[in-house]
Amino acid sequence: MSIASDLLRGNTDTIILASLTGHDSYGYLINKEIMAKTDSQMELKDATLYSAFRRLEKDGLVNTYWGDEEVGARRRYYSITDKGREVYEQNKAEWQKAKQMIDSLLV
Amino acid sequence: MSIASDLLRGNTDTIILASLTGHDSYGYLINKEIMAKTDSQMELKDATLYSAFRRLEKDGLVNTYWGDEEVGARRRYYSITDKGREVYEQNKAEWQKAKQMIDSLLV
DNA sequence: CAATATACCTCGCCTGTCAAGGTATATTTT
DNA sequence: AAAATATACCTTGACAGGCGAGGTATATTG
């Protein structure tokens, strides 16, 4: 990854929630999509991704269920909850604010 | 502080370097300036600030010297080094890139 | 049959933030 | 005169998130 992880920190959960707003998804795909959208400049490491899922689950922001693939590796799907959508909107707003403030501090 | 510290993380050092680009400064003042510029919505906690200074010093991005105040509390001043300016520019560029990428991921 | 891609997971380290505590001086309020 | 507030510095230890390193299992491609 070419972007310092400390710059991503605080946005990981939000990014995952974002990728769940349109449709349910699963870890591997979410990561692939992020890489595709950022030209492989950004990537959520496995361990980061799965620890984020545990956190989101614990906080009731996502639900999870096993896919019924009859072929290939099993997939654990995630869906965003109402609370998840709420938190997502809050996080986005906070990000907008933080962005502005940081920009105003960098000459 | 109203902005989640995880959103600041990764920018702390850059913000400190930014405030040293115009003129030497000291911890307490740097913090006051940040609060003034962000309407008190952002603040570097003491411990965070001073651990950042140690890091910047260790990495040769700032130099430090004691002020010669004849009245009031003593001040430890910091000045940015050439390497500091270099890293500052790099960090700013990286921030611009990270910003764009995160924005592109948030629907 | 080996390598690669898909797909999941855990453990334990590292690093940055910060709550809580401390020191010392100067000014303002009671 | 004493207490409170502002200025100004500092350290310790806990905590949380990122991730390197390791693991499992299935399907496809060379």
Description:
2 copies of one chain form a homodimer. With 107 residues, chain A is mainly alpha-helical. Helices cover 57% and strands 11% of the residues of chain A. In chain A, strands 1-3-2 form a 3-stranded antiparallel β-sheet. The longest helix of chain A is centred in the last third of the chain and has 24 residues. Chain A is globular, with a radius of gyration of 15 Å.
Helix/strand order of chain A, N-terminal first = HHEHHEEH
Largest interface: A-B, 32 and 32 residues
Outline of chain A, from the CA principal axes? globular
- What is the overall pLDDT average of chain A? 93
Secondary-structure topology with pairs:
Two copies of one chain form a homodimer.
Chain A: H1 5-8, H2 12-20, E1 25-26, H3 27-37, H4 46-58, E2 62-66, E3 76-80, H5 82-105
Antiparallel strand pairs in A: 1-3, 2-3
Chain B binds a DNA duplex (30 and 30 nucleotides) through helix 1, helix 3 and helix 4.
